[in-house]
């Protein structure tokens, strides 16, 4: 087992001190802004309106039952609806899809699974607005195409509901700020549905980082490398080919959050450190056109499209405490799946997607290891297994994405029922999604660094718990 370095994050910080200054004192490099004079100066945070207050450390009011409404019942929404209904103390009360038949199909499936029938909404692009008038909804889960997330998230907050939005919560900087401000004004939480933050390896990595196994964490790499070409050109998978159409619009890191967010969480971004600058590079867009040439019949609607998004878009992100994160996005090249998940520091390194062991990960930590050869992650994952996985592994087994979908759903409902502070708040969600617009901006400036806004408006310096929560029970039903 690893012998922990003398400097352990929790014992040193005691949970109450300002983490930013202290983390610098712990041996991190100079602030990134000093290392990047070319960075565009940070756009000032918009002023809070009178009465508008931070949502940091704001607990949910306790809910006896969490009543969930789902907007968007395609691959993801239809798949997640039964998961919500399976969590103790959670009921799906309403479902909505612009295609009314999908609402009926999901309602039928819930009834077949022995759940109460949810109300159905559909038939128009704004049917969700009618649904939001209901007073039996506590949480809105949004699983529509990216272009609708901001408007639907905002409308849900304004209707007085808490919101959990699929990736990304919004695609423009002003929209991200708007969701932060609307959450602060309505006093409702909005969070990114980042299931990967609840992955078993990711949570063990986070605990190891916080307990000092890495020494001082200095760098991390993550992303979303998934060969989606067949699905992107399918006529039945993504509704109206919405996801392929994004590749005709701009060159952007659309969806790196699955790998970026766990790294940012392990680095305590917004909880003692923050993302400061981002510079992006993009390769030429070759993959989709090449695939179409070889596999898609002439006359298919895709032949009218021109793909402009670079196949591999890479963001180099610096943090206030001198760390660096590399976040990658590639969904248009042939390759096996990876979210990269690599974290490293002064005492060692964790690399996921690297081994043949059941955990799929490898490590090297001093003083346990020497000799420059990788070791199995398995004993570390056993020791640092997060309480959520110790508790839920059996129930989550066989569920979506290796069980992490159910862990995300169970924990979200537990936080609301027990009246706890969310693990992932609107500030985390905005920071993790900011690379979508910022990668566009940096690429337009030939890859120059651009400033990442501080959505917390200065509160990032305060250390506070997040996904590294203490074990708590689900209130009895
Ligand atoms: N976290 C994950 O692991 C994960 C996995 C898959 C997809 N996703 C995300 O889930 C979202 C949906 O992806 P998908 O694969 O299910 O796409 P999809 O095309 O299968 O489903 C989208 C659904 O939204 C519906 N819709 C569109 N406009 C609507 C509106 N105005 N009101 C109500 N419904 C509307 C469509 O009819 C469709 O049924 C995306 O944001 C995607 O990135 C996340």
TrEMBL record:
Residue span, Gfo/Idh/MocA-like oxidoreductase N-terminal domain: 66-191
Pfam families assigned: GFO_IDH_MocA, Glyco_hydro_109_C
Domain Glycosyl hydrolase 109 C-terminal: residue ranges: 203-376
InterPro entries: Gfo/Idh/MocA-like_OxRdtase_N, Gfo/Idh/MocA_oxidrdct_glycsds, Glyco_hydro_109_C, NAD(P)-bd_dom_sf, TAT_signal
UniProt KW Hydrolase keyword: yes
Source lineage: Bacteria, Bacillati, Actinomycetota, Actinomycetes, Kitasatosporales
Designated name of the protein: Glycosyl hydrolase family 109 protein
Alphabetical UniProt keywords: Glycosidase, Hydrolase, NAD, Signal
Family, similarity comment: Belongs to the Gfo/Idh/MocA family. Glycosyl hydrolase 109 subfamily.
Gene3D superfamilies xrefs: Dihydrodipicolinate Reductase, domain 2, NAD(P)-binding Rossmann-like Domain
Signal sequence coordinates: 1-34
Domain of life per record: Bacteria
Swiss-Prot/TrEMBL cofactor(s): NAD(+)
């Amino acid at each position: 087992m690893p012998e922990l370095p003398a400097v352990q994050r929790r014992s040193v910080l005691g949970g109450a001190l300002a983490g930013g200054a202290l983390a610098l004192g712990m041996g991190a490099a100079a602030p990134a802004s000093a290392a990047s004079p070319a960075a565009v100066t940070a756009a000032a945070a918009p002023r809070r309106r009178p009465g508008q207050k931070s949502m940091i450390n704001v607990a949910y009011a306790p809910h006896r039952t969490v009543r969930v409404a789902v907007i968007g019942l395609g691959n993801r929404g239809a798949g997640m609806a039964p998961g919500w209904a399976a969590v103790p103390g959670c009921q799906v009360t309403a479902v909505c899809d612009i295609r009314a038949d999908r609402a009926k199909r999901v309602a039928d499936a819930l009834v077949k699974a022995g759940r109460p029938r949810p109300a159905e909404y559909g038939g128009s692009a704004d049917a969700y607005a009618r649904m939001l008038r209901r007073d039996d909804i506590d949480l809105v889960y949004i699983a529509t195409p990216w272009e609708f997330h901001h408007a639907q998230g905002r409308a849900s907050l304004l209707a007085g509901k808490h919101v959990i939005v699929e990736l990304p919560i919004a695609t423009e900087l002003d929209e991200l700020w708007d969701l932060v401000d609307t959450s602060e004004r309505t006093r409702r939480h909005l969070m990114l549905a980042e299931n990967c933050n609840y992955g078993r390896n990711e949570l063990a990595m986070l605990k190891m980082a916080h307990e000092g196994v890495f020494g001082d964490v200095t760098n991390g790499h993550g992303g979303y490398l998934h060969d989606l070409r067949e699905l992107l050109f399918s006529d039945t998978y993504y509704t109206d080919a919405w996801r392929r159409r994004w590749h005709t619009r701009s060159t952007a890191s659309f969806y790196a959050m699955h790998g970026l967010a766990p790294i940012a969480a392990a680095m305590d971004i917004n909880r003692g450190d923050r993302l400061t600058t981002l510079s992006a590079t993009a390769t030429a867009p070759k993959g989709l056109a090449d695939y179409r040439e070889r596999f898609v019949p002439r006359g298919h609607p895709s032949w009218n499209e021109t793909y402009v998004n670079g196949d591999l878009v890479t963001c180099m992100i610096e943090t206030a405490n001198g760390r660096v994160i590399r976040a990658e996005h590639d969904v248009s090249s042939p390759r096996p799946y990876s979210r990269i998940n690599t974290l490293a520091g002064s005492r060692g390194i964790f690399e996921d997607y690297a081994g043949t062991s059941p955990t799929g990960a490898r490590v090297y930590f001093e003083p346990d290891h020497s000799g420059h050869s990788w070791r199995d992650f398995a004993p570390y994952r056993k020791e640092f297994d997060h309480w959520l996985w110790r508790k839920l592994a059996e129930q989550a087994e066989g569920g979506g994405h290796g069980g992490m979908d159910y862990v995300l759903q169970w924990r979200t409902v537990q936080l609301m029922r027990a009246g706890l502070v969310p693990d992932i708040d609107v500030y985390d969600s905005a920071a993790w999604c900011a690379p979508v617009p910022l990668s566009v901006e940096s690429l337009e400036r030939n890859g120059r660094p651009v400033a990442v806004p501080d959505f917390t408006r200065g509160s990032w310096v305060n250390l506070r718990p997040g996904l590294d929560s203490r074990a708590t029970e689900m209130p009895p039903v």
